[in-house]
Specification:
It contains 13 helices and 70 strands.
Amino acid sequence: MVVPSADAAAGGWADGGPVGAYYANPSLAGDPAFTRRDVRVDFQWGEHLPVGGSPALPYRAFPRDRFTVRWTGRVVARFSEAYVFACTADDGARLKLKPTGAADWVTAIEQWGQAGTARSQPVQLEAGKPCDVVLEYREDAGPAAVSLAWSCPSAPEQVIDPVVAQGLNASSWEGYCWADEAKSSRFSKGEQDERGDPTGDCTLLAGEGRMGNDGTYELSFQGQAEVARRGSVLSAGEQTWKDVAPRGAGWDATTNTTRLRLTNGQVEGPWYIEFKQTARDGKDARGDGVGDLCLLRPLKAGADAAHRPDEIVYRPFKDAVAPFTCLRWLQIANQKCDGLWSSRTLPCRREFTRGGFWSDNSGGECWEYLIVLANECGKDLYVCLPMQADDAYIEPFARLARYGSDGATPYEHEVDDPRWPPLNPNLRLYVEIGNEIWNWGFGSTKDCNERATREIKDQTEDGKLIDYDGHGNYRRWHALRTVRASDVFRRAFGDAAMGARIRLLMEYQYNNAQETAWHSFSFLDAWFNNGDGEHVVQPHPVRHWVWGAGGATYYGVGNADGRQDEVKIADAGFDAGAVPAGTESAAPAGSGWTCTGDAAIYRNWLVSIAAFSPGKPGKVARATAAGCSLTVEQSVVVRALGCWLRPHTGAHNLVLMGPQGPLVQVGVQPQRIAVSEVESWVWAWGAVPGDPVRLEPGVTYHLLARAEKGEPNLCSEPVPVVAGPGFAITGAARVAANAGDDPKAWTVETAAPGAVAFGPLALRASATGEAKPTDLPEPSRGGQAAVLRAGGALSTKLTFAKPGRYALELHAAGPGKGWPGYLPFSISVGGKSANPHGQRDERVAPDNVVIGGFHRRISNLDETWGSAVFSVEQPGEVELRISAAAKGEGWTVLDEIAVTSVDALMESGFGAGQAYGQVAQDDYARQLDGQAGYARSFGLPVIAYEAGWSLGGDFHAKPIHTWAKFKEDRALGMNDTAADIFMHSGGFMNVWGVYGYWPPHDLANAVDYPLWCSIAGLASRLPAEETNGIAAPCRLEPKDVVRWSWSDNGFAGAFGKRGEWRSWLARVPASGVWTFAVKTQGEGGWELELDGVRVGAGAAGAEPIPVRLVRGLHGVRLRAAGAFTLSGIEIQNQP
């Protein structure tokens, strides 16, 4: 028995594939018509398929006959063995090799004058050492085809694939993909027709959310209009206008087309083009809009020449994606949409994607454009089709991918000169139904759940199918739709293409969270493989329907924010100089800050805790409630109770106890958006209801927290706290376990005396007759913060013991009204600017700090921001100065300022990833080993649909994070290590992103940044060998099974009924024949699968099963046909 091998079993192409130079002549003469890095050489053009694969020149004009191609590249062998190269060509080919260390090229295959397949003599290659390759191909007439494969004693013959498969979440770069800026722009004013063109005077919003917008654009449209772009120069021919081109400028009456050059000086952010006095037919101004609007980008940011009108793909994007092998795209897959093919976005539409995240009827991305993107870049394409799509959507999509379209309707067969070409024949198509169909923040997941529930309730055939055992759910509906899609593609492309070229994927949540992997795979095996009964006439294993699977593989560092203790700000929270409640002071006694101009330190309330150490999060054992004991120095009125809570811990009740029992109870809630363990801890406050509660001196009170469910989520041990002015913390207090829910029955005990507590709990109070607090936000910790108004400034001294790169972390907020929502301010350290260009930007801004961003809260002082990274060249004291703008409305408040360190971040080792919603572990290798087990159990290659360094998460990035990724050479090694850990686990392809691998403002120079260099370096070497699983020869014990959630309590070896199964991962150190002896007791039979392929069946006493395997990791799965007990599976090498 031979188990099929994974891609690149023998090694593969370095650098993401060879570079093909395509000549529009039969003799490789002159300059090539175009060059392209092809992910593999495996073309079956036949008589009709276009060679270029794009409507753009020069691809469109390239001939189908009488052409030649020269591919140059490097291959890297996995084994130190003799390799045989195989080239199939119609009409002729020549292969030249130059192994490492060789002085001269050797012609390995010479079949220039005839079609067919030729094989080389064995060529000795050394594992891990590149071998230079030149493949020349000629096509004369008739069918055209060429492919290059190889084999060696340890691996079967395969088409040569890239040595490492690496995807990119390209949809994150949608605004940088297209030569036409209008494809990624929208109208902020005016209505549009069915093609997306304006029907009246309008304003085009370009460059939204993008950087690098300067340079010369070519604007064109049908009709006439006055065109205004403030701060730009517009020209047509020899005429030039500043800001506004008059109506008729650049208009050609014979074609009714206006063409203008627009030189834009704005580098970043949105910019506007106004169209007034419009006339689509070019006649009198009627305000009826313009047609066929196009805004061609500069060749790169800042260039004085634009792309050609026929170009589709933005040139710098092609260069940036060179080392990647696959482009993943998702937009409509996250959305709540109608799922109708008739609603899709056509290529004639002005914008690339119609609708948006909040639209119920989004047409989504234009599939023709994505196919052209993959073809021009030479990359495999990974699409996420809408969850709502049925076969009536997927069937025409499959035809589009295979045959192309006329711009509206996919062809039924291959045609000459398709208007929109199909996917190039050497490229693979990865297909996922939906995206993160477990993420309840996406409309697609909600739709899936609603549809599954409705199908089950209405007892439809599919509803009864997914609920055959009473356990139907949304993941089964998703699995069923994946099977249906697989059938559609099988009909469209044929059996031979499934897996070889068309690859359906089944992605799951981190670590099988919500049992997403288990629900999907167990259902597919039970029903479609007749695992637990006779359900289908022709059963198939999971890998018949699904080619790959996996979860995301984001990684982090142990100290993501670079916190350090060597450089401290003496009065970081502005609490050292006490300020009376409800007032401001420019010079409180004892403050560590100097206030000048309109700057001050303020206090709203008296707060019982001024500072604290959060301690180690953990539940307080054997306690119903826990907190602290306190006293007051003067009579105060309690206004609110608060607790420092981490996100997603559930509601807590806070109880203030006096000598006679409870005085007041309030409920508080933690943050619901868990950005990170540090960022998302906040004070949760509840106002005291009803009559005021007064505290008196000389009395001990207890402030306690009780979770509504479970134990209080505070600290496992008492932690130090600093009492606020007028308060004393006298000990850590708790209530004995099982004391009940009624505080009247509680007895409070002191667990530890002194200024300690089971985590930070506090109360806000005012003295008798106290005025109302200020209109400024409540400080994030302690009771005081600073406020800057126009012309105000704060300064203090910092002492650095050693040189390095540092940044500031600070809490800041403004009123939140208008733009930008806060009073602009600047930061300088040692007289040099530390103003961030943005919170996701590594650059230093010359004028003001930029804070804010998507899902950030400008008006909330719990938010943390960062300064730009600054360098300290030598030890010593420097001034930190924070200055408000000289003029402006409103204010900015500041609190809890700290110095962070790039070194502290970079040297903290691997930690949990910070992607929003990530179920993360600090032990990255352990997490990836576990995740790989679910896919590999069924013989599915592991595809991590998202991957990379999620430093800063989705919403809380700071400049230090971006600096670490884009400016630190150590980032290259960090990403290399993460990739190696993925490969060690048994991973096949990381799809990097959605976080950036180069700064958006410098796409043209992506190759200069360390994370891009890591990707390029990984593409040029062998992947790290797998270390997951149990090394053979070995005995797989019941205790060694892959830990699915249902088997977390261990497995002793008993199989009770048909359909039960268990899986293991085993690692063979050498290619060859290996035997598998299944040792059981009992009468029940079993079936054995290796890598998802049934290799044998038997019962107690069965003979060992021989299987030929390639070196590496393999999934072993044993499925019961009856009851038996397994003692082990022995794996031995057969001589």
